[in-house]
Amino acid sequence: MTEYVAIAKEALDEQLDPLLKQTLPCRPETIKQIVVAKNKTQIGYGVTWENRYHPYCDEIFIYVVPDFRREHIGSEIIDRLKKEVTQPLMRSVDADNKAAVGFLRAHGFALKRRCWEYDVTPEQIPDLSDADKLPLVSWADLSPDELVTVKNALLEHYRSTHESVSPMNADMTKEEWFNVMLDHLDMTYSYVYSHDDLTTFVTTYDTTDKKKLEIGYVNFKEDEEAFGVFVTTIMGHLKNRFESFGLEIDSTDAAAMVLLELYPPVAVVTFDAYVAAKSSQ
């Protein structure tokens, strides 16, 4: 007979089986709840934890050892976790993990965001004629006042694209957010549309691989078509400087979806965020 026991995060090392602990998806200090399933030995557990940057949903993870799956143990665990939560639950899974997707949907979770993460090579980036190119304004060439404007636009863009899924932490200061969002920013290869339009931008980030550049946050003010030309100009400008470009595209971000259309992925499985509102728990 299976029993379900809640344990305190302070007792994690003593009370959670070491083999199960290896699958723990979060730092122990962020844990809010943990429930362990026992049948002679520990056969599974469920945990909720807080994401410091997006604390208004509780992240959730459930693991059951293979020999005990399809015995409703996961359902028993999630039902016990739900009794104590006070805000929505969130879990992100690969779209092709049909078992996980089915489990989440059966327990009141709804798809909120798809995420494509993939690389683009120079061969996938068309050459541009001089007539097709726009003049590029690097972040490195902006004045201090202009940098303040574009940083604020970046922060507002981040807020708006995350609001419907998992809102950003309102208790963090602007400077704290800037420290997170601008970490490893490549000022030289990040661009704004013009000195007159600082809210249309493409950010890029250094990686440990000097031959690869990460395309980060992107935004346009009004004109999607002009933004597409802006992006293709940047990519055409950079294609001979790097061997690959990393893209992470969220379906909640209209500007990022322009990149998805311009440089479509090949056989990439999306990483999808599911949320269960408190009322559905």
TrEMBL record:
GO molecular-function annotation terms? acyltransferase activity, transferring groups other than amino-acyl groups
SUPFAM superfamilies according to UniProt: Acyl-CoA N-acyltransferases (Nat) (SSF55729)
Q: Which Pfam families match?
A: Acetyltransf_1
Protein name, entry field: N-acetyltransferase
Which residue ranges does the record assign to the N-acetyltransferase domain?
Answer: 1-135
Q: Which UniProt keywords apply?
A: Transferase
InterPro entries xrefs: Acyl_CoA_acyltransferase, GNAT_dom
What the entry lists under PROSITE patterns is as follows: GNAT (PS51186)
Q: Which organism is it from?
A: Bavariicoccus seileri
